Structure formats: structure tokens, C-alpha cells
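Ticket #4471: structure output looks truncated?

Reporter: J.K.
Steps to reproduce: submitted the chain below (330 residues) through the standard prediction queue, then opened the result file.
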Amino acid sequence: MHTSEALTSGRRSLRRAGRGRSMLLGVLVAALTVVTWLVPVTGTPTAEARVTRVDVYSHSMGRWIANDVITPNSGRPSPTLYLLTGVGGGEDGISWFNNTGVRDFFANKNVTVVMPVGGAFSMYTDWIADDPVLGRNKWQTYLHHELPAVVERQFPSTGNRAIAGVSMSAGPALDLAIQAPGFYRAVGAYSGCPFASGLVGEAVVRSMVELRGGGNAANMWGPFGAPLWTIHDPWINAERLRGTEVFVSAANGWPGPIDNHHPGFVVPQTIGGMAVEAIASACTASFGQRLHSLGIPATVRFYPEGSHSWGLFETELRDSWPLIARAIGA
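Returned output as attached by the reporter:
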């Protein structure tokens, strides 16, 4: 639901965030450096959960990509949910699969859940050039062509798809839906910033690609201000989400029980998470207003507590599921 109070607060926060590019970059990199201390906590799957590790060769990237796949027990054709993880791409052991109860949650649902392992600092997009640090990234090609071709051949599929992302991958999940209208029937974006151009967009992208990942964002979309930065900006291209079910969410950054932090890392997780989630909240509020102004139906949800944690992210995913399930016929 859109709320004028939340949107007004988000716009004010966003204007404050956009006052200085260097200030925002400093806040982001300090916060994100702390957030990397998250500790993987692997839950115990139920007896019903069927999990398969599927390695898919990406011709576009010239390497094998691992994917954790949860499949229903029914054996009937099912829709597919592609679930993208955060800035480390799951290569650091921090992911939906390792840090949440997704195996239990989806064990009795009629959906195939695919969680790629890889894409750290990549924005899950096709880069125009290989990067000396981050290598070759052609994630849009992989997620739109190479991976679905294998998944939907190996597991009985209805052909209906959804995609969702968190933190770094929240904006890219929206962008992937925008780049291929109709390919996904629903998209979820949790605790992210759906901007890729302008001062805020540049700061957010560079904080992940360059300050965290050590790569060069010019190898992704060209120098800042080049056309691809605008082409991949979900806020600017939101009109192309018309007809797709959209769920976007964030919390206010204030810690609470929803976070379920690891006891040994409460302080660093909370400090870093508060700053990052506050920025995500402002971005989400502005994006919600953008969708509303275009007359595009969407669920925009704000949580009264949550500091960019896996406890928060799992809550967002669970809350988005009824919308996603209806859209894909799960």
C-alpha cells in the first residue's frame, strides 16, 4: 500500500542523501564494510525439501555457474522463482540458501526456486568489457537465456517465472524485468535502491562495484553518464513494469527482533545495517511514488523496524510470496 507519510519521509531522506556524492559514498562504504561481517547460519531443512546443486555452463561468461535449486515433490510442472542474493553473490557463503529458512518455506509449495551462486559486485547485468578484478560478467544473458533453458528442461515447468532480489540485487531484479517485459510475471525487490543514474544512483552503484568489489564501473556501463546507465535505471524505466506484479519493500533502519542478529555480531551488524537500510528506505519510497505517479499497481511495504539483516530479508520474501504465487500460478 502507498502511504503519503512514508513517501514524504522517503523523499526528504532521498534529498538529504543526494546532497553530496562523496558524503553518500563515504556513508555507504563505511556501512557496507561492517555489513560484510554477517555470519552464515544454515538452517536444518525439512524432510520434504528437495535441494539440488545444478551447474550450468555459461557460454557468454566462459565458465560454470553453480545454482541451488529447490523443487516441489509433486512431480507436476511448476512455475519458477529466480532468487538473487546480495553483494557477495553467495560466493562468500552469505545467501538466501545459507542464511534463511527458504528450504523449509518452499518445501511444500508448488514452485521451483533457483538461487544462482555468483555475480559478486556485478549488479547482475551484462558488462560491456571484461574487468581486471571482477572478470567477465554477462548476467543478464545468463539469467534470461542460459539458465532458464537448462532449468526448464531439467525440471517440469509451466513456463511462468518470477524474479526477486535483495540489497545489491533488488534494483537489478527490477531492471531484469524491465529489460525483458513479460519474461517474468512478478518481481520482488527487498531493501535495495532502484536507481542507477543521477548522483544517488551513481553513488549506490559505485559503492558496491568499486568501493566494495574493487572493479571499475566504466567496464559495466561505460563512463558515468553514458546511455547504459540510464537504460538500466529502474526509476527512469519504470513504465516498462506495467503488466508485471511488483513488490518493493524496505525498513526504516531501526534494529529490532525482526533482524534476528547473530549474538556475537549484534553491534557491527546493527551499525552498518542501520545506515544501509535507511538509504534503501528512502530509495524505495521514491520508487513507490514513481510507480504511483505512472498508475502502475504495486505493493510498496515499509517495516517499522529492521536494519538490513537476513531476518528482515526473509520477512520481506515471505510477505511478497502471496503476490508472487498468484502471478505465476504457484
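Triage note (M.O.): checked the attachment and the full C-alpha cell line is present. Strands lie at 50-58, 63-71, 78-83, 112-117, 157-166, 186-190, 245-251, 299-303.
Status: closed, working as intended.
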